[in-house]
TrEMBL record:
GO terms for cellular component: cytoplasm. Residues 1-18 have a biased composition (Low complexity). It comes from the Eukaryota. Residues 39-217 form the Helicase ATP-binding domain. Residues 1-29 are annotated as: Disordered. This is Helicase ATP-binding domain-containing protein.
């Protein structure tokens, strides 16, 4: 014991203290309610739309799903990432913060004020190189797909916040009409992203049968 103490102090100064590692992210499943866990189970199995009232914890389901997909975005043999789409710039920061608080995934934020409209392919590739979850507004993803900066097979999980905006010629709707559905109906075997949509509102369409909500989206 004495020899060990002498060796520790024998370099002419106090021993360096190792930095304390940050605490692990809180596991959201420990605070999830039964209906959130049920929605998670369904989302892991297939494309899912979650309609829950405001304050019911839709984002928590999305975070749990991101954790479940972590191994898919970390496969060294295939570079893929998750994309979390939100309709406003304010929500970009809010949802990115929630994901960072409850996962150890590397989160990147993108919005128009960053000048992304003027980025070329090389700039985008550099910006997302080490990102595992990309939080952005839908127009940014749509523009990237149109310019072939991103391809759908690169996206393992695609989350649509406030998915009731998926109608008409909205950016949400165009992502499906121009890219997702054509590839789904083609013979190309490239993987498509898992889709998770969430909203507190039903789709605004007069006379729409409630049983056709998911088909409408």
């Amino acid at each position: 014991m004495g020899d060990h103490q002498a060796a520790a102090a024998g370099d002419g100064g106090a021993a360096m203290e190792e930095p304390i590692p940050p605490p692990p992210p809180t596991d959201p499943e420990t605070m999830a309610r039964w209906y959130q866990l049920e929605a998670l189970e369904r989302a892991v199995r297939g494309n899912t739309l979650a309609f829950l009232e405001t304050g019911a914890g839709k984002t928590l389901i999305a975070v749990m799903l991101l954790r479940a997909y972590a191994h898919r975005v970390r496969r060294p043999e295939s570079r893929r990432f998750a994309v979390f789409l939100v309709p406003t710039v304010v929500l970009v920061g809010q949802q990115a913060s929630v994901v960072q608080a409850h996962t150890d995934l590397r989160v990147k934020q993108f919005y128009g004020e960053m000048g992304v409209d003027f980025w070329d392919d090389a700039t985008w590739r550099s910006a997302v190189e080490d990102g595992e979850v990309l939080v952005m507004t839908p127009q940014i993803l749509l523009d990237n797909l149109r310019h072939s900066f991103f391809r759908l097979p690169e996206i393992a999980l695609l989350i649509f916040d406030e998915c009731h905006h998926t109608k008409g010629n909205s950016a949400y709707a165009c992502i499906f009409k121009e890219f997702y559905h054509p590839q789904l109906n083609s013979r190309v075997s490239d993987p498509l992203p898992r889709i998770f949509g969430m909203s507190a509102s039903l789709i605004y369409s007069n006379g729409l049968d409630p049983h056709k909500y998911s088909k409408n989206i």
